Structures are given as structure tokens and as C-alpha cells.
Amino acid sequence: MKIDHIGLWCRDLEKMRQFYEEYFELIPSELYHNEDTGFRSYFMQFPKGPQLELMNQESMAGTVAEGIPFGLAHMAFSLGSEDAVDKKTHQLEMAGFTRIGGPRITGDGYYESVVLDLEGNRLELTV
Question: Less CB within 10 Å around the terminal CB: N or C of the chain?
Fold first, then answer.
């Protein structure tokens, strides 16, 4: 198991992409845009290790999007297989933790589920 990526909600997605490119030399993916929801993101690649996902949604106004403040959105753990995602999701649900999404294949190609930890932080369980 390893951390796959950490997600940040951004007010200005393009300026944040430029910041991480210029000052940390991260390499951005192509822009992902879900036209149905207005969700947009870049995966910023470090030379080694996890990625940083910069995210924005057109409906975001002020400081909160869908009840989530700007900043840290989630940590994603790569478990190695869809079966491992399904088993870990089930294990956490049976232990009383709340599953809030998935398992499913997302629009940008991840197989994932989303579970809340003890303090309500979003944990994405991915392949």
C-alpha cells in the first residue's frame, strides 16, 4: 500500500497549477473537465512519490464547496487491485466507518471508494 495522491480544492486552478509547476517543478497532467458537474482537476507529478491533485468546481463560491472547505480534500491510498479496494471498503464499513462513495470507476479512470476516517477526513481507496 502507498499514498497515491493528495487532493487540494483550489479557488484559482490555473494559478495553482502554475505555482506548483514554477516553484516545485511538478509536471501537470492534461486538464480533466467533467462538463456535467463542472469539476476540473490536474494531477501534478513529483519526480518520485505520490501526486498532488489540484481541483476546482464551477459551482464553488466563497470558501466552501459541497460542505468542504478549500485546501486539503482527501488522501488517496493505492491498494493494488479492485479486489483489494472492495475488501478494504467492506472491512472499514463493517468496523463502523462511513462509506460516502463507490466503489466505482470515476470519470478520470480511477477505481475508487471513499470512506471517512475517525475525524471525518476523506480517504480515497484506489487501485
Answer: N
